[in-house]
Design goal:
mainly alpha, Tetracycline Repressor, domain 2, DNA-binding, Arc Repressor Mutant, subunit A, homodimer, 10 helices
DNA sequence: GTCTATATTTGGATAGAC
DNA sequence: GTCTATCCAAATATAGAC
C-alpha cells in the first residue's frame, strides 16, 4: 500500500493522500476509509481535521487550483514575446496532460461527479476556469497592445472566451480518447484565432 | 416519486428510469435501490435483466448513443448546402445542451466517473466520439468536394479532429460555467477552420 | 419473469478515552 | 490532536418461492 510521508502532520498526510486519490480515482470512487488507511491516520483524526468528506474535497480543489495556476504562470513567464506568451497556455496542455497520465482536469471531472449545481465543489470549478479565462484575456490584451495596427480589429473578450473553450476541449477529449492529439490540434485552433504573423 | 410508464416491460422501465437518473445525477451517485424503487420493479427483477449495475450502464450508453446519433443526423439532413451541413454539428450544440439543462454529455461525464481506463463504459465513450468524428470528417469531405478550387488546400482529417475538440470544449465548458456561451463561441471557432465564403 | 426476504460489504460519521 | 471501537444507512447482489 502506497503511503505518504510520515514526517508530515496528520492533516497534511490526509490532504496529500486524498488529493492523489481524488484526482486519479475520482471523488465518489474514493472512500474515506481508503484515505484513512493510506494516510496512516485514525478515523477520528480524519473527521477532526475535515468535518465531512466534502470539506476535504474542497481543500483538495483549492490546493489543486493554487498549484496549477502557479505552474502555468511560470510556464507563461518563461516567455517574453507577446505572441509566445499568448500561445503558451494551449502549448502547456500537452506536457501537462501527459504528466497527468491522461486523467484530464480535476475540476471538470469533479463537475461530472457532482450533480448538485449549487455545490461548493462546482463553484470552485467554475472559479478555476474563470481565473484561467482572466489570464487568457490579459495575455490577449497584451498581444493587441504590442501591435495595435495589426490587432486593432480583434475582440479581446470573444477571443479569450473561445480560447478557454478550446483549452477545455483539448483536455476533456484527450482523456476520453486517451491520446494527446487533441492538445496538439488545440494549438493550431488557437493560432487561427489571431491574424497570421 | 417520479415513475416511468407502467405499460412498459420491467426491463424497459428499468432502462428508462436508469437512463434518466444516470444522466441527471451521474452513474455513481445513483444507487440500484433508487432505480428499483422508481422503476417500480422488484430487486430480483432488476438483477434478472441486468446482471450487474455496470451492465445496465452499458445499455444506457448504447441507447444514448443511438438516440443522439439519430437526432444529430436528422438535424444535419435538414440542410442541403455543404457549408450549412458542415456547420450543423456545432450549431446543434446550443439547443441540445439547453434541452439537457446544462448537464453536459453523458459520455464525458461517464469517463470522469470511471477511473478504470479499460472499462467497457470508457470504451463506449471513446467510440461515441469516434463516430462523431467520422460524421464530421464526412461532412468536411463533402464541403471540399463541393468547391475543390476553394478548398483544395484543406487537410480534411486535421479539420475534423479540430472540429471534434471544439465540440467537446463547448459541451464541457457549458456544463462547468452553467452557461451556453461556449456553444455559441464554438460556432465562430468552427467557422474559422475554413476559408471565409 | 417477477416476487419477498435477506446477505454482505462499504459508505460516511461519532463516542469517549488518552 | 490522536487513538480504538462502534454506529447506522446505503451500497451491490443473491436465495428461493410463485
Amino acid at each position: 500500500m502506497k503511503k505518504v510521508q510520515t514526517s508530515d502532520s496528520a492533516k497534511m498526510r490526509i490532504l496529500k493522500t486524498a488529493s492523489d486519490l481524488f484526482y486519479r480515482q475520482g471523488y465518489r470512487s474514493t472512500g474515506t476509509n481508503e484515505i484513512i488507511k493510506k494516510a496512516g491516520v485514525a478515523k477520528a483524526s480524519f473527521f477532526y481535521h475535515f468535518p465531512t468528506k466534502e470539506a476535504l474535497a474542497l481543500a483538495y480543489l483549492q490546493d489543486l487550483h493554487s498549484h496549477e495556476a502557479e505552474n502555468l504562470l511560470k510556464f507563461v513567464n518563461e516567455r517574453q514575446k507577446p505572441s509566445d506568451r499568448f500561445l503558451a497556455v494551449i502549448k502547456w496542455i500537452e506536457p501537462w496532460i501527459k504528466s497527468n497520465k491522461l486523467r484530464g482536469c480535476g475540476f471538470l471531472n469533479m463537475v461530472s461527479e457532482v450533480p448538485d449545481k449549487k455545490s461548493p465543489l462546482r463553484k470552485m470549478a467554475k472559479k478555476h476556469y474563470a481565473v484561467l479565462g482572466g489570464l487568457i484575456r490579459q495575455l490577449t490584451q497584451e498581444l493587441v497592445n504590442s501591435d495595435p495596427k495589426r490587432y486593432r480589429h480583434l475582440d479581446v473578450s470573444a477571443i479569450a472566451d473561445r480560447y478557454v473553450a478550446i483549452v477545455v476541449g483539448a483536455i476533456a477529449l484527450s482523456e476520453t480518447a486517451q491520446n494527446t492529439w487533441p492538445a496538439r490540434q488545440g494549438v493550431e485552433v488557437v493560432n487561427a484565432l489571431i491574424p497570421i504573423p
